[in-house]
Every structure is written in C-alpha cells, then in structure tokens.
Amino acid sequence: MKILILVSLLVLAPGVRAQQVGLITNTEARKTTSLDGQWQVIVDPYESGYYDYRYQPSDNGYFKNAKPKSKSDLIEYDFDKSATLKVPGDWNTQTDQLFFYEGTVWYKKSFDYQRRPDTRVFVYFGAANYLADVYLNGEKLGRHEGGFTPFNFEITKLVRDTGNFLVVKVDNKRRLDAVPTLMTDWWNYGGITRDVELIETPTTFVQDYMVQLQRGSRDHVSGWIKLAGEKLSQRITVRIPEAGVSRSFTADGNGLATIDFNADLKLWSPENPKLYEVFIEAETDRVRDLIGFRSIETRGTDILLNGRPIFLRGVCIHDEAPLRGGRAYSREDAVTLLSWAKELGANFVRLAHYPHNEFMIREADRMGIMVWSEIPVYWTIQWENPATLENARNQLSEVIARDKNRAAIVIWSMANETPLSDARLAFLRNLISHARSLDPTRLLSAAMERHYLDAKTQMIDDPLGEFLDVLGCNEYVGWYDGLPEKADGLEWKTKYEKPLVMSEFGGEAQFGNHGDALTRWTEEYQANVYEHQIGMLKRIPFLRGTSPWILMDFRSPRRPLPGIQDYWNRKGLVSDRGEKKKAFYIMQRWYRELQ
Ligand code: GCU
Predict the structure, then answer these.
(1) Residue having the nearest C-alpha atom to atom 2 of ligand 1
(2) Pocket of ligand 1 from Cβ distances under 6 Å
C-alpha cells in the first residue's frame, strides 16, 4: 500500500475541550449508524494541510476536501485518490511505513444520512489518539485532546442527505505539557483507535444519568438524570422491572432530576455478576441500560464488597490486542484478555495506565471482574501547568461520564509512579476532589512508590496516601531492585491505616527461553521472581490486593533488546501470542489458594 508523505514544522497550540452538549452516555441504547471501515487518509508530518507556509492556520486546509473545479485549478491533495486505513485501528500496525510514525494523519469519511424529522444527530468517537480536530462538510466541529476517552459533536444543522464528508486531523505527537507527557513505557499508537458512530436522538433526550447504590448502602439507589434539549422540565420514570421498581421524578428547568429510592436488589459480585435491565423513560425519550448494583467501601485495612471483606486477585492489562497486536478495540479483544485473567484466577484487573475501550468495561461487568480504571497521569507530568491540570481533569470527567454506571469499576486511579513534590500533591489533590464530586460512590487510589526505611524495611508513606481510600504501590524487587530472593527478608510498613493493593511487581521473560533461575530473560528467572514475591506479599498484614505487571507482553519503544524484547516489554505472564509462561501457573496456584 503506497502512502503519500507530505512535510511541516512542529509547534502545537495546547488543545481546547469540545464545546457542545456533554458526553452522551450509553450509546448502546441509541439508534446509531457506524462509520467504521476504510477511511481515506493523508499522512501529513509537516501539517501543511492545516498551516500555511508562514505556519499560520490556513482557512483552506485539507478539511475542505477540495476538488479542482477546472483544469487550471491548483489542488495538491486528493483524499479519494489516497490510501486508506481501517477505523477503528491504530495506524502503526496497519502499515510498516507508519510503525514508528508520530505526527499528523488526516482521515476522511464520506457518507449519506437521511435524518428523521424532530431528531438530532451527533458524531461520537470512542477515542482518537491524541489530538483530534474534527470537521464536517468543511466546517470545524471542534477539537478533542486525550487519546483514551470518548467525545461527541452535534451535527444536526450541518448534516445533509447526501455527500457528507467527515474529516479528522489526528496528531499523536507527544508533548511535555500533555497527559501523558513525553515519556511512557507503552507504544504511542496513533489514529482513530475506537468506533465512530452517528447517534440520532429526539430533540430533547436523556443525555446522561447515574443510577448506582449510595456509597456504603446495599438497598438505597441514588443518582441523577440529565436531559438535553428544549423541553427540559419533564417527568422521568426509572423502571427496574425485575426488581419491581417503577419510580417517577421531575426534572428541573435545567433538565436535571435527582433520583432516590430503596430497592431490594440482588447485588453484583464476581460470583454473581447480576445486571438488571434499567429503563429511563422521559416524556420525549427512553433509554435502556444493563446495570449492576453493589457497594464498595473500606473499613480500616479491609476492602468491603457488599459489606464483606474481599481480596482483589488481580493482574494489570494494557489496552493492546491479543494475538494480532496494536490497540485493542473490539468485544472479542476484551473477552480474550479478560478470559485469560479469569483463567489466572483473577476477580480484578488493573487497566493501565489510561481508560481502556468500553468493551473492556462492559465485558468486565458481564463476566464479574472488578476494575481499577486509571487516567494517564504517568511519571513526570507538568504539575504547575494549568492547561495540563485542565486536560487531566477533563480526561477524568470523560472516563467517569462513560463508565460511572458500570458495577465492575470499583477504583478510580489518579496517577502512576509520580515523583514527590508539593506541586504534584496539589495537582493530584485537585483531581481527587474532582473525582469525588463526580462520583462519591467509588474508591480512589493511585500507584505510588515506596522507599527503604532500612535494608530490610519498605515504607509506604507518600503524602498522597492521606487523600486516597486504597493505597497502590509498584515495586520490582527481584527485577530492577536486586535478585529474586531479596524479597525473602523484606518487611512492609505504612503510616496509613488503609488497604494496600500491590499494583505492580514482576519481571521479564521471553516465552520459550529457558535456563537456570538466575538467568535473566528466562521463564525460570521470571518464575523465581514470582515465587519470592508471593512469599513476601503473604507477609504484608495490610495487603488486600495484587495486580502483577502484566497479563500479556506489550509493545514499548523503550525495549529494544534484540532477539529478546525487540520493542516488546516481556513482563507478560502470557506472550503476545497467548503462550503461558511458567510464572502464569505460579500466580494461578496462589490465586486458587486464595479462592
Ligand atoms: C513501571 C510502569 C509501567 C512499566 C513497568 C516496567 O512501573 O508503571 O508502565 O511498563 O514499570 O518497567 O515494565
């Protein structure tokens, strides 16, 4: 496939948030038209489809999808003669020419659309990494920043029956002020990485809602319903037929209805992931959702699910497709990864380090797997940059908006391995209060680091711990820190009377590479790390969960070791081809004991 290459300079304005109705919750309940499939693309590393030669934004960029009107007309691009890429999908694994590519790619999709009378139409993106400028029929709809959360724009006034062209400029260049920032240990897959749909709604519709048990309660449902449109003060009924619930509420002048009622519900749990059909019926709209109800809280160093102490038997996962590689995006990808986790004996997964695709969450809900969901505040972010904070807050708002009705999500994680400083603490405390204001029902955590009090004692006393419900800690004793047996003599302490989830531990092995237990990169060395880790973890009195790093080998530009890594991080318990390493069975044995 021959890709057309064009060139430009690299100065980017920080992104602005999409200005429209908020995020539409639960697109599954809507009449949608998929725009997935092959999109024409133009690879534009010099962004000459956006800027003129003076590096000023041009009014006549590729978003115009211009065609020569006469033989003398000068147009230097043509989407319809250009190559195509599949959407959803990252560009890096679709053609070797773009494997390492970081920059701009323009996407164009032509479509016809007969809008029904008295309806509104929105274009909904599951995600696009990283900065997306979106245009319809040459008009700018808006910009979205952040590669892992959904966004939508209204196109009611712009869409026409035939000959529509949707153009998206996607730029995955890394930036210091971005979230994530320049350095990560995962592949910076670029593109329109998740589904794109046209969503049709009534003129006044149920735009968003939260229907969950009140924090700490096992029979009191509380939440809200938000209408968008003209006719806002409506009567809205919440029905849960199987539980004999039918309660009506009145939306105020802003279309907001607060809901509150008792109900006798079978509670969602890994053993019984009960999902109820829930109907939200307004006078002008009706949506159906499948919602589980469970309570999650802490008491001292315990984590309580539905009032009973629980141990989170977990594993970390990147949103990377099993077997084929590249960004995961399908229900099948999710089922494969979560089934491997279940086979390991997991009742919990840490979805690192950014919001995964919605199928992962919906399948975890259905399969009974609790979820730690994280935003990519990863390593050293620009803590003092207000735009960076606004960006992180926005990604938090969007993931909570999308997933707040999923029982599977038990923990929102604010960050991973961030260095101690006052600016960092202020930044993360801002996110914590933002998360609590958006969702008072779930636990908050972060993957923190530890330090040695003395040669034999690890201490978790990161000041951030004071503001979290659950302590998360990453440690690599036996891999980055000494040899496997070093774990044997280690004791763990914390200054907090809170539960700990050891959110990362492990070591690398190339599947099929064998040797003695002290030879790096062999399955025996990795197994050796796990044997000693499990011994150490069992001795931690406040440990209430573990999520070893990581379920499956994943691509990382930081891992070039030839013949072993070849740009894969090999800490998987399973190889990228689904082959289970020795350490998988060691972890499985322990999780079976815990069960
Ligand atoms: C870190 C980090 C991961 C990384 C892992 C590793 O702790 O959180 O993103 O991949 O260590 O070094 O393999």
Answers:
(1) 185
(2) 185, 353, 416-417, 474, 504, 549, 569, 571
Dmax over CA atoms of the chain, in Å, equals 80
DSSP state string for 50-108: TB-TTS-B-TTSGGG----SSTT------GGGS-EEEESS-STTT-GGGTT--SEEEEE
**Separation in Å, CA 305 to CA 222, 370, 471:** 18, 10, 17
Q: Could you tell me the distance, in angstroms and rounded to a whole number, from the CA of residue 372 to the centre of ligand 1?
A: 16
Element (H, E) at 223: strand 220-228
> Which 3 state secondary structure label does DSSP give 590?
helix
DSSP-derived secondary structure letter, 50: T
Q: What is the pTM of this model?
A: 0.95
Give the pLDDT of the chain (595 residues) as one tens digit per residue.
Answer: 333 333 333 444 444 444 457 899 888 878 789 999 999 999 999 999 999 999 999 999 999 999 999 999 999 999 999 999 999 999 999 999 999 999 999 999 999 999 999 999 999 999 999 999 999 999 999 999 999 999 999 999 999 999 999 999 999 999 999 999 999 999 999 999 999 999 999 999 999 999 999 999 999 999 999 999 999 999 999 999 999 999 999 999 999 999 999 999 999 999 999 999 999 999 999 999 999 999 999 999 999 999 999 999 999 999 999 999 999 999 999 999 999 999 999 999 999 999 999 999 999 999 999 999 999 999 999 999 999 999 999 999 999 999 999 999 999 999 999 999 999 999 999 999 999 999 999 999 999 999 999 999 999 999 999 999 999 999 999 999 999 999 999 999 999 999 999 999 999 999 999 999 999 999 999 999 999 999 999 999 999 999 999 999 999 999 999 999 999 999 999 999 999 999 999 999 999 999 9
CA dist 570 and 572 (Å) reads 5
Sign of the four-CA dihedral 368, 372, 375, 378:
negative
- b/e per residue 509-542 (b: at least 16 CB within 10 A): bbbebeeebeeebbbbbbbbbbbbbbebbeebeb
In this structure, are residues 541 and 301 in contact, taking their beta carbons and an 8 Å threshold? yes
Residue 100 zone, left/alpha/beta (φ > 0; ψ -120 to 50; rest): alpha
- Of 549, 565, 567, the one to substitute when testing ligand 1's pocket (max ligand atoms within 8 A of C-beta) is 549
**H runs (alpha helix) in 386-473:** 386-403, 422-438
d(CA 430, CA 58): 37
What's the CA-to-centroid distance between 291 and ligand 1, angstroms?
33
What distance in Å separates the CA atoms of residue 553 and residue 224, rounded to the nearest whole number? 41
Ligand 1 atom closest to the Cα of residue 504 is 7
Q: What are phi and psi of 464, to 5 degrees?
A: -65, -30
Residue ID of nearest Cα to ligand 1 atom 12: 185
Among 184, 416, 417, 504, residue to substitute to test ligand 1 (most atoms within 8 Å of Cβ): 504
Distance between CA atoms of residues 8 and 53, nearest Å: 8
235 C-alpha to ligand 1 centroid (Å)? 50
Distance CA 190, CA 99 (A): 10
Helices (H), 421-522: 422-438
Give residue 185 CA to ligand 1 midpoint distance, Å: 6
